Predict the 3D structure of the following.
Amino acid sequence: MSTSKSKPNRLINEKSPYLFQHAYNLVDWSPWGEEAFVKAKAENEPVLVSIGYSTCRWWGNYFNYTVT
């Protein structure tokens, strides 16, 4: 399984280099904002917050192990 997809998620228009680098992740990330909370509430889903896994060696290992 690939760790990227061909269609970008909502991070594609973000100015932050950290957010932008995840625009093609398999996870359908949303930037922090009202839209994310409205969508989560409408779908009765929790809001999960990424705290910077790209800089964490162990999270990178976990991501590669579970996604690839």
User: Anything to note?
Assistant: Residues 57-67 form the longest helix (11 residues). The chain has a mean pLDDT of 80. Residues 50 and 61 are 16 Å apart (CA to CA). The chain has three helices and no strands.
